[in-house]
Specification:
Elements (H helix, E strand, L loop, with lengths): L4 E2 L7 H5 L13 E2 H15 L12 E8 L4 E7 L12 H11 L2 E10 L10 H8 L7 E6 L6 E6 L13 H24 L1
Parallel strand pairs: 5-6
Antiparallel strand pairs: 1-2, 3-4, 3-5, 6-7
Length: 195
């Protein structure tokens, strides 16, 4: 590893082999401080112990690093919370994001996911969609690790979260949908008036 930083040559991963170009390497590589990665992983591992997962017995921890509106750094953590109605379960990454938002975060720079097994686990699609709302600049990093905080894989997101969740829904979809809903509402109102 180079000094106190993780750089592209340090973080080649299985994902790079599966999705060429996901992690790029060039002389102007942005660096993520190794100490920051270690601190985020430590927070995620610590909060993982607070998981409420009585049904799956799979505890997950997450930590996020971002900026608030004034550019102040914010760190927040979260763990999974399961419910007997499993579809209502809250993922650790979503809880960490919600905690960060309550601290004023409006831009994410790094997201850590600590899995429940010896295999490295990454963020689910629903959480990627939620996190995508807050990735406004590039680069950003997704840091995935196995139980206990190691080994660690760092995935650099060069453009936006669409690198990891293609065809994501974004605000432009909402505007169009609300126009469609308004048009349908108008149609149904007209039909009701005719009766």
């Amino acid at each position: 590893m180079s000094g106190h930083f993780l750089c592209a040559s340090d973080i080649i991963s299985v994902y790079h082999e599966v999705r060429p170009g996901l992690i790029t390497m060039n002389a102007k590589e942005w660096l993520l401080p190794q100490a920051l990665v270690a601190q985020l992983v430590k927070q995620a591992v610590t909060i993982q112990g607070l998981s409420y997962s009585p049904y799956s017995n799979k505890s997950i921890g997450s930590a996020v690093f971002g900026l608030d509106k004034s550019g102040r750094a914010v760190m927040a953590a979260g763990t999974n919370v399961e419910f007997v109605s499993y579809g209502l379960t809250l993922c650790a990454e979503s809880v960490a994001l919600a905690n960060a938002v309550t601290q004023g975060t409006r831009e994410l720079i790094a997201v850590v996911c600590v899995g429940h097994s010896e295999k490295i686990q990454t963020v689910c699609g629903a959480c990627r969609q939620r996190l995508a709302e807050f990735i406004v600049g590039a680069p950003a990093w997704l840091i995935a690790t196995a139980k206990g905080g190691g080994p660690v894989q760092v995935f650099r997101i060069d453009q936006c979260w669409s690198d990891l969740i293609p065809y994501q829904m974004h605000s432009s979809n909402i505007s169009r949908e609300s126009n469609v809903i308004q048009a349908l509402k108008g149609y149904y109102d007209e039909q009701a008036d005719r009766v």
